[in-house]
Amino acid sequence: MQKIGISRGTRTPLAVQIYSAIRESIENGRLAPGARLPSWQDLASQLGVSRGTVRVAYERLVAEHFAVSLGPAGTRVAQCQSPFFTLDGPEEVALLPELFYGFGCAPMTFQMGVPSQDAFPFKLWSRLLTHESRRSAPVSYPDPRGDPELRQQIAAYLRLARGIRCNPSQVLITGGFAGALGLAIQGLQLGKAGAWIEDPGFPLTRTALSLAGVLVTAVPVDAEGLNVAAGIATGAAAQLAVVTPGQQAPLGMPMSLSRRRALLDWARRSDAWIIEDDYLSELQLKGRAAPALASLDHGGRVLHIGSFSKTISPSLRLGFMVVPQELSARFGEIAACLAPAPAAAVQRAVAELLRQGCYLRHLRHMKRLYAARRENLLHCLREKPQSSIKIQATAGLAVVISLPELASDVDIASRALQVGLAPAPLSPWYVQSRRQQGLLLGVTNLNEGRLMTDCRQLLNLVR
């Protein structure tokens, strides 16, 4: 609640001044319906008045239906929307609608980027989080670079699973991939320098770089990943490349060894940087995941970004970044001042998952589950042959289907939401390349019992 200003030099009673200030906050929307007002004692202490004065103000608010008294539950702003509560103003604009259909909603069939909800280890996670919440409650300011135990566990995990040799001082805990990307943009001090992005590529990355004033060059990808020669030809002055070498997003192919070496050679020659978006970590559903690009980096040019959004839950808002040793002090200062690590209890709970080996066991289980669900989806799609679509790729945790050129994947995806399906349109991932019409079908939250029906509904929308 906005601070209430009272004046003892006027003839207006103090209770009326308090009443008027709270009523104005309610009418202007600064106090939302259901918001709890301070207790009589707390507000009286803050304003230096008697409790009786505050009580008179509150009783008038209740009498005029601006507030309701709930006894031990306190006094709250009334829920009913009378004309006094009418708020004028524009509706909120949807954020990145090509990626997110809604925030805080339960995952829908075919939705991208959300792990399985029915296979989440709720009991284990609740136990760990409860324990770590109690343990972290009495501490002072936590380390803004991240909990030391989690950073140590991540360094050990990356050495084992991704082939990256790093020490905990190079690891920073971030608010998911977006938090790591923002920290990287600040730390590398790119200014107006250019950056390569994959085409097609993750729209959030493109938007983030543009918002930071970085000149973006879209570089096409082919069967071997980012075309480094094309990048040099079209964006020779670039000082950064953002790539998904493990499993290209959204098409799924790994970057070949020759392309990886060419990219590292370019970075060394140009004194440029590479951000490796390892968004799926080792969630390779067939075979073993390729080592990280950072494992080949002997010149300190790669910043490796990972997160727990796809492996545990995006609601954690928990990611990490491994920076070259010579950048660790600068990035630590930026984290402390501008982007401190998320809540300590969540970090420590994830550290326990890693320490106890539960995280690796969970990943193994998810690989088997997702691989089976992907096969079921492919079977259903092939059972309903359509001349207008074809299966283009099995990419990461999704199946990519292509549509006819005259179709609108954005329109189809929008209409699918109305029947409870959430495929992602493919065309917004493209920049300069010919915008291919297609749909990305996530496999993580499929209901096998109604999968055939869901596929039939989707194909009917495409027709």
Strand percentage:
5-15%
Element order: H for helix, E for strand: HHHEEHHEHEHEEHEHEEEHHHEEHEEH
User: Which architecture name of the largest domain does CATH use?
Assistant: 3-Layer(aba) Sandwich
| Fraction of helical residues | 25-40%
Largest sheet: 8 strands, mixed
Number of strands: 14
Computed over alpha carbons, the radius of gyration is 26 Å
User: Under the CATH scheme, which class of the largest domain?
Assistant: Alpha Beta
Shape estimate: globular
Distance between the termini: 53 Å
Which stretches are poorly predicted, pLDDT < 50 over at least 5 residues?
Answer: 81-86
State the helix count.
Answer: 14
Might you state the CATH topology name of the largest domain? Aspartate Aminotransferase, domain 2
Strands side by side in the biggest sheet: 3-10-9-8-7-4-5-6
Average pLDDT score: 90
Structural write-up:
With 463 residues, the protein is of the alpha/beta class. It has three domains: 72 residues, Winged helix-like DNA-binding domain superfamily/Winged helix DNA-binding domain (Arc Repressor Mutant, subunit A), CATH 1.10.10.10; 237 residues, Aspartate Aminotransferase, domain 2, CATH 3.40.640.10; 102 residues, Alpha-Beta Complex (Aspartate Aminotransferase, domain 1). It has 14 helices and 14 strands. An eight-stranded mixed sheet has the order 3-10-9-8-7-4-5-6, sandwiched between helices. Strands 11-12-14-13 form a four-stranded antiparallel sheet, with helices on one face. A two-stranded antiparallel sheet has the order 1-2. Helix 9 links the parallel strand 7 and strand 8. Helix 1 packs across helix 3, helix 4 crosses helix 11 and helix 6 packs parallel to helix 7. The longest helix has 26 residues. 40% of the residues are buried. About 1% of the residues have low confidence.
